[in-house]
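Quick question: what would this complex look like in 3D?
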Amino acid sequence: MLNIVFVASEATPLAKTGGLADVAGSLPQALRHLGHKLTVIMPYYRRHIARAGLRPKPTGQVIDTWADGVMHACPVHEVRDHGLRFLLVEQDEYFDRDGLFGPPGDAYEDNLPRFVLFNRVALEIAASLGAPVDILHCHDWQTGMLPLLLKSQYQHYPAIASARTVFTIHNFAYQGIFDAGWISRLGIPTPHFHPGGFEFYGRINCMKAGIMAADAITTVSPSYAEEILTAEYGCHLEGFLADHKARLSGIVNGLDTHTWNPATDPHISAHYSAVRTAGKKRCKKMLQEQCGLKVSPDTPLLTLISRLADQKGIDLVAENIPAWLKHGYQIVILGSGDPATERQLRHQADRHPQQMHFAQGFNEKLAHQIYAGGDIFLMPSRFEPCGLGQLIAMRYGNVPVVRATGGLRDTVVDYNRDKRSATGIHFEAATAVAFDRAVEQAVSLYRKPATWSKIRVNALRRNSSWDASAEEYVELYERLQKGVSR
Ligand code: ADP
């Protein structure tokens, strides 16, 4: 049995802005079920956690940590979800805010002190769990400094001194880049501030810190692990990453298949599965009614649930919307992000209320209803480390049309490659024309009920659980314990 500690900036069901939260909430559960001891350490986002209906209790432990010339007393709180233990770092001044990382579409100015403080307190919590920690598993730039701090400043804690660190890259595009002035203000080790370390053109890069110092680097799909070594996807770090490639591997994400299950989902109006699909029709009808669309069982209903960011290729969707509406399709979009994109989608929906609905915001319940009610799920991402939207869509028989990139390529079986096992459709070029062609193909397949039903059942049957990937992580952890780093 391994003693594994996850350190993450968000995790379901406590607080979520995207796929990292799904992973940090569900992978530890899968690892627990394999017999390991798991603790997740997270900031105490007081108002988000209260909104999630959870009531953490103080553990009595208070950790004093210095940041930017001030000593912060950080009480530790505990909450359990389905048996998984979360330890939460309280520092209301830093973490009790409306956003996790910033106002919509923006970042907080003090994100570096916030997360360096979090990393330091997390190390001290890990050091005081009562048993030596085998694995410290860190996620994305917010925990990138942790492996470096552990190796340079926290070796005097016997319980963590020999812990192995894993740094998982969920999105290479967000690197956590900050002014170099913070180095002395936060006590970050200076000897590594050079281009081969965590310096990035005179600034601090937290992603680089994680890559250089962690014992193993993983990313969330094998394709993305290869892509980020290229100039197209490497976000200016491809050369640096190449130097650390021996420690890099890709493990595809799984889903929390209890939360995402059309046979039991409490948010949807009828239940269904691969063997009993009738309920899906009812979900479509309810979605059409709820969104003010014409109730029409045979009209293709295109759906999208996403952050509205450049990465997600929403411009390719917006460009095609007029043509799709002209063809008579229906469109339901749920998302928030770039204000100009929000305005554009709102404008398009207002002009065609019977055919298109745009729900602005983050809405978990509506997301379940859209996954269940939709026929075709759109995911034209410019890059996609793994992507959970397409996994959830397949699990709900909402057939994904995806750009063949990263995890989308690895998880959706393309109809044009393998008609018998297809679970969706791929397109290659990140252009509106290529995307439209794929959507047109999806609609023409939708109009052949026997073919469509086969694709939909394949999608419904796909095993997107964590079973296989959790085993892969355990194998990696065990190799690390033996001193092998990949
Ligand atoms: P990313 O992490 O890059 O945002 P993923 O596809 O990996 O993208 O994960 C997105 C997760 O967030 C999925 O669980 C998706 O259902 C959810 N999601 C995205 N936008 C919204 C929204 N506006 N409302 C509810 N859930 C959303």
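Answer marked as accepted. The CA atoms of residues 10 and 17 lie 7 Å apart.
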